[in-house]
Amino acid sequence: xxxxxxxxxxxxxxxxxxxxxxxxxxxxxxxxxxxxxxxxxxxxxxxxxxxxxxxxxxxxxxxxxxxxxxxxxxxxxxxxxxxxxxxxxxxxxxxxxxxxxxxxxxxxxxxxxxxxxxxxxxxxxxxxxxxxxxxxxxxxxxxxxxxxxxxxxxxxxxxxxxxxxxxxxxxxxx
Length: 174
Description:
Distance between the termini: 63 Å
Helix content: 40-55%
Number of strands: 5
Oligomer: single chain
């Protein structure tokens, strides 16, 4: 389904529906966007789900706050029909391929939000990873912190083994 773009009043956009997957909005990034907007830089429309009454913001929180700081009353919104739940699902993968890169903490928050969502909490690690656009081992490590420890131990063993192999190759050459 293709998103529809429409000019929407800022007051019609909700940002409090559990659709902000980042740990926090970066005020320095918002300021940079404000400065760019003052220089006539045009940003893509924010993204949302529209349930018939409310636009649930899913992607573009930094842009939203920049527009707010500038006192802009209406903005372009690219939206799909959908519920607040649909907006939450969309938000878990926001910025995975564009915009300000997600930090590890942002990815972790997205996964934790997905795992806490009663409508999808029982999905497999693979399905949660697909929804959040992260790796399956990452989801496993958040769902079960002991797996994270096992992953770290396995990585350490692998690194030591590789170092030993390189050392043995070096010794056989000399």
